[in-house]
Design goal:
The chain is mostly helical and 132 residues long. Among the domains are: 10-54; 87-123. Helix content is 62%, strand content 0%. The protein has helices spanning 10-21, 26-33, 37-50, 74-121. α1 crosses α3 (37-50). The chain is elongated and about 100 Å long. The protein starts with 9 loop residues before the first helix and ends in an 11-residue tail after the last helix.
Length: 132
Amino acid sequence: MPRKVRRFSRETKLEAVRRMLAGENVTTLSNELNVLRKDLYKWRASFLAGGPTALRSPGRPRQQRETGPAEAKPEAAASTAKAHRRIAELERKLERQTEELESIRQDLQHIKEKRLREVAQGDKPFKPSPSR
């Protein structure tokens, strides 16, 4: 014979969790409420994870509607477009700075090579520039 599923209100679950957290014996509470101990522990875990709103009321859960681009609010669309423009601007700036940095690295490498050649040829004695 199939077991009948009992449904408990959020308030009932919340009260049971509060009693558990106060230190009441879980087995006694389970027998009193005619609830499986594992369900009490599930309720407590849900409560600790998300507070009182995490304890669902009986009934079918509400469906989350995903808003597509066509249903998005105009303010959200404008904000998203602004964010995309800003991202594109920052990516362009990053690319320019990366190119400049690479150019500076190449120039430094050429200077090092030139100095090494001068020292090897004996043209000039190597003198490091004074640090500031």
